[in-house]
């Protein structure tokens, strides 16, 4: 299965608005060039979310006023992909164009999501809808429209809470 990149975004400093890009550069030491998280958090350099998971979260938030019209950047992810189910196993490898990224964990939504829209945190917390967090293994240019593929899929990781 092959998907494609439909969104790229970065923030120069923490809590800054997301800046949408047409193209960018992934590096092993900085993640998405110009984003504040890559060099500070080497195991959490890049966050990837699927458009399908974002839409599922939006549908869950639907009410009498309809479905919220929130931009995907409200999630604060770096990459939006469509047409592919992201792996849910730690250690999986995802290719964005020629760049290789290793999944290091599920992206857990933070409490800021409820500042964006009530209930957004809960809607994103289900079934890995918040996306995946990755470390760059092989850097290079990325751009809207580039193919996305799963190179290696590890077994799904599920958190087991005490009963």
Describe the overall structure:
The protein has 163 residues and is mainly beta. It has a single domain, classed as PK beta-barrel domain-like (M1 Pyruvate Kinase, Domain 3). The protein is built from three helices and eleven strands; from the N terminus they run E-E-E-E-E-H-E-E-E-H-H-E-E-E. The strands form two sheets. It has a seven-stranded mixed beta barrel. Strands 4-3-10 form a three-stranded antiparallel sheet, with no helix packed on it. The longest helix is centred in the middle third of the chain and has 10 residues, at 51-60. The radius of gyration is 15 Å and the shape is globular.
Short description:
The chain is mainly β and 163 residues long.
Q: Which strand order does the major sheet show?
A: 1-6-5-9-8-7-11
CATH level-four homologous superfamily name: PK beta-barrel domain-like
Please tell me how large the radius of gyration is.
15 Å
Report low-confidence residues grouped into runs of 5 or more.
none
The major sheet is characterized as: 7 strands, mixed, barrel
The rounded distance between the terminal residues' Cα atoms is 37 Å
In terms of structural class, how would the helical and strand content be classed?
A: mainly beta
- CATH topology title: M1 Pyruvate Kinase, Domain 3
Q: CATH class, please? A: Mainly Beta
Written as H for each helix and E for each strand, in order along the chain, the element string is EEEEEHEEEHHEEE
Please describe the structure with a list of short key phrases separated by commas or semicolons.
single chain, 163 residues, mainly beta, M1 Pyruvate Kinase, Domain 3, seven-stranded mixed barrel, 3 helices, 11 strands
